[in-house]
Design brief:
Blueprint: E1 3-8, H1 17-26, E2 34-38, H2 41-49, E3 54-58
Antiparallel strand pairs: 1-2, 1-3
Length: 59
């Protein structure tokens, strides 16, 4: 399965609680942090929910 790098590019301050929890579930704790995940449907769905706060690229 393909790998995806996810980088948080915007703050979660003043965002709904569900978006904050999604960032934590992805392993992101602050702006500039990068994590690598398998491109599963679950991960892609979480990325879609917070696409305005993160950037993605193929690993």
């Amino acid at each position: 399965m393909a790998k995806i790098k996810v980088k948080q590019i915007k703050s979660s301050i003043k965002k709904p609680q569900n978006q904050k929890r999604t960032l934590v579930a992805l392993g992101l704790k602050g702006i500039g942090q990068v994590v690598e995940h398998e491109a599963t449907p679950n991960i892609l769905g979480m990325i879609d929910k917070v696409q305005h706060l993160v950037s993605t690229e193929e690993a």
